[in-house]
């Protein structure tokens, strides 16, 4: 098979890129290791920046998002009994939309056939070849048969564990990483949210986050040591911990119920640079990971894909050969700002095992400053809604 762009990975980055390229009449094919149901079965975050909403609208794929997404004009930082509201709409004129990543992926997946976006699921042993040439190709196995796709460009949207990033020589790249000394235990339950806005809590017992998927489905998190296993956390223990960490006002609004999903995920900050090598571009988690505190993971994948689609469209439709070389610097400029915000909010809202009284005093001082300063709240707000692209 021959195509213009071979995309590896049918998560939100790969599917969004595929749709954007097809909308420009650019041939592409998406190779996905798993089944579509498996991809949809992964529970992920659910806060969309305006740029992500706008890309779905530009594709005409925002019907459900408009109908079911929850518009959020603010969120809250809880510190013991104190609740500091960040009025993102009042401070920036923008809002975010709570709409599960699974739903974004479902909307993109469902629309693929009608829009001529070919997605090959259960593509095994995907390997990248000749990425430093103008004629790269991908091999993979399907039903036990090895196949080949020749392309002008390959875009790795294959997440943190995919093969694309690893195809770039270490001598031509640099990695930046911070692994956090805790994970987030997440629970999904069909109960109404405790509040109509998100609450990030820094309590002496640890971090908690109250989020939601709809008016009847809630998503909560507590941070736990990396040694913890989900078996140690009954639903009751999670609800008890949430009620303590989120503070009395939020606790009064908590409706308990059986978990329909619960899992522990580690936290890391990670950046791989550059995000292009030869004819291979990287988008999304293939190139960077953020701690979920800033709700940036999906939104960074969206901005990467926006830049990549722009560069590929310039190349194929306008013969502009300067856009592709400029992709990495453009994408990384926004990635680094989101990495800083996510790291900063993680430091502010979590208790680190190695921290002592001084570090805690710094957290209290910063929260006092945020509580009393419009400038400080505006800085948090404009990062949370997403910096301009
Ligand atoms: N061959 C083909 N597909 C692969 C391979 C492979 N060898 N390895 C991984 N994949 C697929 C995965 O099965 C997954 O569907 O690539 C896709 C990567 O999707 P994500 O991990 O969701 O990454 P991305 O699309 O960049 O979206 C980033 O997803 O994980 C969250 O928190 C993250 O919100 C962020 C968002
Ligand atoms: C979620 O709803 O899953 C969620 C919301 C905000 C975050 C992280 C996760 O910062």
Mean pLDDT value: 97
Helicity range: 25-40%
Low-confidence segments, given as residue ranges, are none
The number of helical elements comes to: 12
Q: So, CATH architecture of the domain at 5-48 and 100-176 and 268-346? A: 3-Layer(bba) Sandwich
- Inertia-based shape: globular
Say which CATH homologous superfamily of the domain at 5-48 and 100-176 and 268-346 is assigned: FAD/NAD(P)-binding domain
Distance between the termini: 35 Å
Trace the largest sheet across and list its strands: 6-5-14-15-16-13-17-20
Number of strands: 20
The CATH topology of the domain at 5-48 and 100-176 and 268-346 is given as FAD/NAD(P)-binding domain
Radius of gyration of CA atoms, rounded to a whole number: 21 Å
| Main sheet overview | 8 strands, mixed
How does this model look, in words?
- With 389 residues, the protein is an alpha+beta fold.
- It has a domain at 5-48 and 100-176 and 268-346: FAD/NAD(P)-binding domain (3-Layer(bba) Sandwich).
- 37% of the residues lie in helices and 28% in strands.
- It is built from twelve helices and 20 strands.
- It has helices at residues 12-23, 36-41, 50-58, 63-68, 88-92, 101-111, 235-245, 248-253, 297-318, 323-349, 357-372, 374-384; strands at 5-8, 28-31, 47-48, 70-72, 75-79, 82-86, 96-98, 118-120, 124-129, 137-142, 145-150, 153-156, 174-189, 198-203, 206-212, 218-224, 259-273, 276-277, 280-282, 288-289.
- The strands form four sheets. Strands 6-5-14-15-16-13-17-20 form an eight-stranded mixed sheet. A six-stranded mixed sheet has the order 8-2-1-12-19-18.
- A hairpin with a 2-residue loop joins β10 (137-142) and β11.
- The longest helix is centred in the C-terminal third of the chain and has 27 residues, at 323-349.
- It is globular, with a radius of gyration of 21 Å.
- P-hydroxybenzoic acid (PHB) is lined by residues 45-47, 198, 209, 211, 219, 292-293, 295.
């Amino acid at each position: 098979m021959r195509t213009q762009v071979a995309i590896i990975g049918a998560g939100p980055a790969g599917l969004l890129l595929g749709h954007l390229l097809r909308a420009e009449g650019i041939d592409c094919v998406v190779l996905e290791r798993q089944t579509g149901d498996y991809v949809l079965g992964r529970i992920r975050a659910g806060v969309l920046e305006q740029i992500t909403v706008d890309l779905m609208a530009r594709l005409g794929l925002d019907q459900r998002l408009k109908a079911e997404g929850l518009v959020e004009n603010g969120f809250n930082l809880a510190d013991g009994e104190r609740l500091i509201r960040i009025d993102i709409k009042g401070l920036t004129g923008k809002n975010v939309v709570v709409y599960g990543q699974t739903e974004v992926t479902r909307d993109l997946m469902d629309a693929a056939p009608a829009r001529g976006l070919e997605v090959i699921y259960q593509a095994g042993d995907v390997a990248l070849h000749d990425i430093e040439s103008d004629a790269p190709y991908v091999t993979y196995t399907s039903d036990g048969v090895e196949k080949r796709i020749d392309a002008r460009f390959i875009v790795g949207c294959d997440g943190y564990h995919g093969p694309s990033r690893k195809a770039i020589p270490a001598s031509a790249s640099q990695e930046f990483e911070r692994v956090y000394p805790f994970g987030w235990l997440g629970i999904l339950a069909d109960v109404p949210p405790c509040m109509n806005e998100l609450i990030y809590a820094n309590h002496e017992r640890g971090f908690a986050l109250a989020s939601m998927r709809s008016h009847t489905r809630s998503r909560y998190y507590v941070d736990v040591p990396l040694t913890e296993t989900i078996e140690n956390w009954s639903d009751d223990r999670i609800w008890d911990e949430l009620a303590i960490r989120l503070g009395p006002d939020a606790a009064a609004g908590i409706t308990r119920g059986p978990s329909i999903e619960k899992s522990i995920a580690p936290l890391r900050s990670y950046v791989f640079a550059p995000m292009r090598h030869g004819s291979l571009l990287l988008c999304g988690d293939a190139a960077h990971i953020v701690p979920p505190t800033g709700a940036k993971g999906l939104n960074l994948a969206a901005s990467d894909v926006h830049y990549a689609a722009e560069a590929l469209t310039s190349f194929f439709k306008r013969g502009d050969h300067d856009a592709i070389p400029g992709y990495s610097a453009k994408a990384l400029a926004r990635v680094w700002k989101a990495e800083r915000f996510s790291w900063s909010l993680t430091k502010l809202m979590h208790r680190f095992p190695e921290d002592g009284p001084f570090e805690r005093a710094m957290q209290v001082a910063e929260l006092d400053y945020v509580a009393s300063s419009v400038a400080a709240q505006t800085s948090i707000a404009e990062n949370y809604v997403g910096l301009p692209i």
